[in-house]
Amino acid sequence: RPMRLRCSSACCVPDEHEDAWAFGATLTALRAFGVEGGELSGLLDALMAVLHLGNVGFTAPKSNSEGSEPLRTGSTGASLERACELLQVEPEALSVAWCRKTMKAPGEGVISMPVTVTKAAEGRDALARHLYGTIFTFVVARINAAVSAGGDSNGKGSPAVGGGLASDPKGCEVLAGQLPFVGVLDIFGFEFFEMNSLEQLFINFTNELLQQYFNEVIFEHEADLYSREGIKWDPLDFPDNRVIVELIGKAPSGIPPMLDE
């Protein structure tokens, strides 16, 4: 069945022949880095769970238009059941986590309240993103372990992922400075879309911090050098994004710190 998370991407057009080839190449690469057997099965189960989570839908109960509950029929209901099977959780437990929130009221203890369909969908997407991020971290750690001087094909040093993917954090220790290395800095670009989310704000803020650091290292150090050598220069030529950085990140007047209050 079509997977919403995959079909919503504008990066590729689904092609069964190309997908089959890419899947085979991915399995070959994972096995080359020591991901086999139960670990490989657990990794694929987690990926399939992410895809099925994206197909889970919600509706408002007839008795509460401000509440929500997962759709249990059709393909969306089948995706819920399959995702829970892959994640080894009960559908009812996952439904409660998505569709209800708990609050501690003074004098009343902990109370449970329903959330809207929109909020339930946001919780579903947050779980899918977190799970996919954990998978990505695991794969990167295994690659780093395999290509490091002290690593091995078993990829020790990687974090745990659902399905039994766990490892020893002492697997790829290498003394700094023992071997020559090549460092590559690839700074991701600023993102501006027709609809920008919180992720774009933080990505662009990170870029501003990197740009500020670059300005300090390059331009401010150059300014000190010019001053020591008596070279005349116009300080107005110095690019400074400090105002932008402080607008976002400086406490207590920055936007996120104020919202956090």
Proportion of beta-strand residues: 5-15%
Task: Please provide the count of β strands.
Answer: 4
| Low-confidence runs | 155-176
Distance between the termini: 45 Å
Output the radius of gyration: 25 Å
Mean model confidence by pLDDT: 82
Order of secondary-structure elements: HHHEEHHEEHHHH
Q: What structural class do the secondary elements suggest?
A: mainly alpha
Annotation field: number of helices = 9
Strand order of the largest sheet: 1-2
CATH architectural label of the largest domain: Up-down Bundle
Quickly name the level 1 CATH class of the largest domain. Mainly Alpha
State the CATH superfamily name of the largest domain: Myosin VI head, motor domain, U50 subdomain
Mind explaining what this structure looks like?
The chain is built from nine helices and four strands, in the order αααββααββαααα. Strand 3 (100-105) and strand 4 (109-114) form a beta hairpin. By secondary structure, it is mainly alpha-helical. The chain has two domains: 4-149, Myosin VI head, motor domain, U50 subdomain (Four Helix Bundle (Hemerythrin (Met), subunit A), Up-down Bundle), CATH 1.20.120.720; 198-260, Methane Monooxygenase Hydroxylase, Chain G, domain 1, CATH 1.20.58.530. Mean pLDDT is 82; it is low at 155-176.
Q: Could you provide a short overview of the structure?
A:
By secondary structure, the protein is mainly alpha-helical. The chain contains 9 helices and 4 strands.
Keywords, please?
261 residues; 2 domains; mainly alpha; 53% helix; single chain; Methane Monooxygenase Hydroxylase, Chain G, domain 1
